[in-house]
Amino acid sequence: FPLAGILRMNHFQNYLIMYEQPVVKFQYKYLIFAENAMDSDDNKAIMCSSFEFLNENYANETAGCSKVRVSEQDLNYDGIIDEINFSVDFLTFHNYGIKSASIAFFVDSRISNQCDMRVPSAVIIHKNFNAGNDRKILITGKLESEQNQALACPFFLRRVKSHFFHEKLNENQTKLEEFEMRKIQQQLEHNPMHLKFRETSTDVSELSN
Description:
The chain is mainly beta. The chain is built from three helices and eleven strands, in the order ββββααββββββαβ.
């Protein structure tokens, strides 16, 4: 997760370009919504989430979701997570897989090069797929920084620090509309900086019987 940022240094509008790998951890908060490839299927929608009350309200939809797995990898053994692997199995009750999936999972990211900052971050993905047999779908990407303004750290005679608006999810909500991913993305973009998922590849392969 490389990160580059612009930091305002003093009253005279001097700026510093900083490079830092943020400390990133999965928050164990996620939401997945998928549609079966067969429109006539009684269980067309599949929903998985970490939100208890939402799951209770969509008990039929959550039946199609199983084996949510998360692993974090420190590839160079420096104590900082380099890679997060998130996977889920969908039960479609037929051999045609899913035709679309929307995924959001939240990570906590911090930088501390000049001062400690918690940078809002989320992986948000929406994909459509062609009809086909049961498949393994592998989506690969990077968390990259997007910055709207220079960051501010406190210094002598100037006690100003950049303020971030973190996702404000009411985890007690029972309606899927309250977790709309577009709104979550828009809220992240209101910050001086946020980390955003950029897809680099999607590989689709059929599962062997």
